[in-house]
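Colleagues,

For the teaching module next term, I've prepared a clean inverse folding example: a structure given as tokens, and then the sequence designed for it. I'd like students to try predicting residues themselves before seeing the answer, so please don't circulate the second half yet.
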């Protein structure tokens, strides 16, 4: 019995695959988004214990997402090669949503780190004695404009998690889980493409 004979038509697996693409994975992604909002809130307010708990809960959601994607992947591998184009159309929106959610979650913290680096550089520049006279542009003292710009940056950038807090370690674990999820979604895309090329 050849491997191709063990494969089944998409219509037989479609209800199970659609359960993952329309219900299970979107629910997990919605839960992940709520964790992201809570994490941002707790980090902004410097509530480190709650932030640590939220990191752990988000990690559980990421693990559930990975598990669900793997289960869906197993179903996809059973689809007959003639139906791979339809399968790809069916799962692509879910893959794109999962990839975007993961990237957005990671980007939030990446931007925060970049903003903090800029703030440190600005503070170092302000601490150095100035050898030039201050100037006024359009009636606004340049020092005041810089201070206003810096205060806006502080509003949008998340504060850095102190290294001595449990939340710092739990973020590193969550970040690794999110990166692994991102790779899993990418690998799934490749899997469907490779299965189609094996014909």
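(Answer key — instructors only)
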């Amino acid at each position: 019995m050849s491997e191709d004979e063990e494969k089944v038509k998409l219509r037989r697996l479609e209800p199970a695959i659609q359960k993952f693409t329309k219900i299970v994975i979107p629910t997990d992604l919605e839960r992940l988004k709520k964790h992201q909002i809570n994490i941002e809130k707790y980090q902004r307010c410097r509530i480190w214990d709650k932030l640590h708990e939220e990191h752990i809960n988000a990690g559980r959601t990421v693990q559930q997402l990975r598990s669900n994607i793997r289960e869906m992947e197993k179903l996809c591998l059973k689809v007959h090669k003639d139906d791979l184009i339809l399968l790809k159309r069916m799962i692509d929106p879910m893959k794109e949503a999962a990839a975007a959610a993961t990237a957005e979650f990671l980007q939030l913290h990446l931007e925060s780190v970049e903003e903090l680096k800029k703030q440190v550089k600005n503070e170092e520049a302000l601490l150095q004695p100035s050898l030039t006279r201050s100037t006024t542009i359009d009636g606004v003292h340049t020092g005041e404009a810089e201070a206003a710009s810096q205060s806006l940056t502080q509003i949008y950038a998340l504060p850095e998690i102190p290294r001595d807090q449990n939340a710092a370690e739990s973020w590193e674990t969550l970040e690794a889980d999110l990166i692994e999820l991102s790779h899993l979604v990418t690998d799934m895309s490749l899997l469907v493409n490779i299965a189609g090329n094996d014909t």
